Amino acid sequence: MMSGRSIQDLLAAGLIEKGTGDSEEIVALIESAEQGLRGARPVIADDPVRSVSQMYDALYSACRAFMQSQGYRVVVGDDYAVVLEFCEASLDRKEVETLKAFDAAERRRHDEMYDGCFSLTSEDATIMFTRARKFIARIKTVLAISK
Questions:
Q1: What does the alpha-carbon distance between residue 125 and residue 52 come to, in Å, rounded to a whole number?
Q2: pTM recorded for the entire structure
Q3: Please, what are the domains in the chain?
Q4: Alpha helix stretches (DSSP H) within the chain
Q5: Which 3 state secondary structure label does DSSP give 147?
Q6: Which residues contact 62 (CB under 8 A, 6 or more apart)?
Q7: pLDDT (0 to 100) of residue 22
């Protein structure tokens, strides 16, 4: 993620295409994001690594909802990076910083997975939870979803 490519670059590379946003699917994605966040909260103290991973997935769902609302869809199989790149090219600096923080944490988790010694703490996860909650709330505001 975080390649600095523009939406035009993603279109030209054949990674995304114009599409129509299905409002029911957009709402379902936001609900999934919120559900993922709710599921991440209770495990912060006992399993901060899993909690942050769940938050990352929740942000991804919110990003997919945002992307669809903007009239685009991914046309490649591994769409995580593409969806996050789209959001990097489309959202405000504060939201992009949140995405970068989660991407860095996910990469760190993946690297540390092999030695089983994770460096994410419950304090880190608590801070990330606040950022994730604000990010999803911001996406809901942009999408004008009030629930």
A1: 6
A2: 0.90
A3: 7-143 (1.20.120.330)
A4: 7-12, 23-40, 48-69, 80-90, 93-112, 122-143
A5: coil
A6: 29, 30, 33, 135, 136, 139, 140
A7: 83
Q: Are strands 72-74 and 16-18 parallel, antiparallel or unpaired?
A: antiparallel
Q: Model confidence over 52-111: pLDDT tens digits?
A: 999 999 999 999 999 999 999 999 877 888 999 999 999 999 999 999 998 888 888 777
What's the CA gap between 126 and 24, in Å, rounded? 31
State the Cα–Cα distance between residues 57 and 8, nearest whole angstrom.
25
The pair of three-digit structure tokens given for residue 13, joined into one six-digit string: 């590379």
Give the CA angle between residues 46, 47, 52 to the nearest 5°: 135
CA distances from 68 to 2, 52, 119 (A): 19, 24, 34
**Closest alpha carbon to 125 in 62, 67, 69, 43:** 43
Q: Residue 147: is its pLDDT beyond 70?
A: no
